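User: Fold this, then the next.

Assistant: Folding the first:
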Amino acid sequence: MTIRLIPRVGYRAAAALAVSCATLFMSSTPASAAVEGVSTINSGDTAWMLMATALVLFMMIPGLALFYAGLVRAKNVLSVFMQCFALTSVLSILWLVCGYSLAFSDGNSLFGGLQLGFLAGVGADSPPRADAPSIPLLLHFAYQMMFFLITPGLFIGAFAERMKFKAIMVFSVVWSLLVYVPVCHGVWHQDGAFCGLSHVIDLAGGIVVHITAGVAALVACIMVGPRSGHPHTQMPPHHLPFTVAGAGMLWVGWFGFNAGSQFAANGSAAMTLVVTHLSACSAAVAWMAIEWIKGGKPSALGIATGSIAGLAAITPAAGCVGPIGALVIGSVSACLCWLACAKLKHRFQYDDALDVFGVHGVGGFVGTVLVAIFGSRHFAGGSGDFSIGSQLVTQLLAALAATVLSAVVTYGLLKLIGATIGLRVTREEEHTGLDLAEHGEEAYTN
């Protein structure tokens, strides 16, 4: 019997062939399963959205809190901080309990279901949403939570310095469920059709946030009534540096507000950031120019307010317009918001203390309408119809529907609250200031 020895190189070749065959065999069978199970979560998108979420919270505390606190009188500054912090805390819990589920789960045309209440069944490895496939579901929850809590934060400026703290909290909670949630569900849910209107363009909340809050601010400031002494007593801001610093924080945070609404770290988010900044710049310059021409001197308050008007206006349009469109939207919003704040308010004598309706309501409406004119598929990632006539009608109807819903619910809620716990503090408490009367503390003791 003859034994033939295989050369050493033969052993190596045979081993390599065996390994190759084994690898091919092992990978060929489960290959389809592996592809099906591949996660769509992108670490870059997730990192950006974590930052964007923090930026939007930064808009509320301390950005909006400082912006508003500087505009009220010294005896009410802590009340504004208290309202912003309390709304942040209470509404975040409400979002967990039922807000997120009602806004973003499947249901009817107004509300989702309660299947995601308390984030039931949601974990760190839960599948992402179809409309935000590259970030975890929990991060979508957190990001949208910031929009939920900042919206009522906007309208507290309209009735600043005279409304009861408990009335503000009750009103904000119920209003958020009856106004914000159905508008959010109709406009932003992946299968939503707000009031039967499909293809409504609202990237980051011109309708969902600014129009609803602005209209609520107008109705509320009229129903609560003017501050004692208004309009004959001068009530100048107590600390404009607070306001200007707060405006700067809002401007920075707005990059997360708008660019984050693309749910990805990509070119669309970059364009959104660029047009957001340019709209704020053009509005600030336009407001400054108006004051300079009308009064001879541009003011720090004016340029800060103008920038916020431009930011509010570009919010619905930021995903669909380019730099030129942003400059026009910002400039137009500054002119119309200035007219609302300087002329309309004085003509009708309503006491919108911090010009919430004039800046956010009017600004949001301007951007919602003008996106139909300046929007383009080129800036919307190649998607969308952008037929000016039909889109303009859609945008107008959506804005009007949100206006009516917010106005009716606000009126009904405040009537009910006024008949039960009361809307405003007493004249003596208002004279003392809400810091002491409502919270038992003072910001300035000298």
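Now the next one, as you asked:
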Amino acid sequence: MREVRRALLEADVNFQVVKDFITRVKERALGQEILASLTPAQQVIKIVHDELTQLMGGVQAKINLSSKPPTIVMLVGLHGSGKTTTAAKLANMLHRQGRQPLLVALDIYRPAAIKQLQVLGQQLNLPVFTGQPNQKPVNIASQAVEQAVKTGKDVLLFDTAGRLHIDDELMTELETIKTKVHPHEILLVVDAMTGQVAVNIAETFHRRLGLDGVILTKLDGDTRGGAALSVKTVTGCPIKFIGVGEKLDALEPFHPVRMADRILGMGDVLTLVEKAQATFDAEQVAKLNKKIRKAEFDLNDFLEQLREVKKLGPLQQIISLIPGLGNIKKLKELEIDDKELVYVEAVINSMTRWERQHSHEINGSRRRRIALGSGTTIQEVNRVIKQFEQTKKMMKQFVELEKGVKGKGKPVPGTLLPGKKGKSLF
């Protein structure tokens, strides 16, 4: 339980929330039967995982879309929490689902806030309603609703100005907008990096406005998302979305089970799979599979796969989603530089077509030319070729192993799965 407490505090969960949580887990764990397949420690972790999932809502919460359009969604929060970008990301997500969103700029206080929303709207090819100069936010909101009805927009996204939860005047302005337009959803946008401070913020906004949900931003940083647990516990409001990057498609539905995995450092393999499915082309994967089976995998294919991996996001983020790897101390301390992939790409691009297909025949003079052309050293060229040859060898072993398994279950020549005293498991 001490390790669990430490994991939660390191994940920036509020101290009081941790204290209550540990008490509940102890009550549930004491006297419980231990499953035959688990050790007592594993049983406790299972209870912790289940309790965490329940604390965060148990199931995925979605936006409540009105049966009579337009659905009005109001985004509120502190300065710099990412409301404007989140509004654009949410509009992008809804548009992909077949909705017709209208972005509404209600932040008349921050310089260039309206311009920022207009630029994001242009990037997504979505309309932005701004109102007249020197107009009050409540009047802009009313006109935006009329505009949405006229133009057939079915979702209105209000990007309100950032404000401190202790600023009574600006909080009253939000209450006035709520009374005037009756939003179907009021979502609090919280920066995950604020950690325990998020509790006080959420508490005040919920008391004044009656929140319907929370969007947690900047979860691609160092934090594991403990703020998610704290906010949900204090307000009782479900977390509906999480922001995991700067790009306009980096908004994901919130899954309590996956966040419980992430807080406990167990990775999030389902999110990784979904990212891969959205990124990789099924036809390309099939072609690659064919090449690997025929032992035709070359540096052109290697380069193509590196580019696909880059699309998934920062390498450190990908590693954190893989169960087990996120908790390895050496990997935590290791700063993985995504620029390394740029150097690998430069080395391969400096090769001729023949060299990419015959990497094992690249001699010393060719390596010198490749190093010169890519702006790297001969040692770096050697490292890229070695990495490729190791990848190719590993793929060959997997294919041979698969053939052996599908055959008569005999040992596969040249492959050895670790068993007792170095013997093959087959």
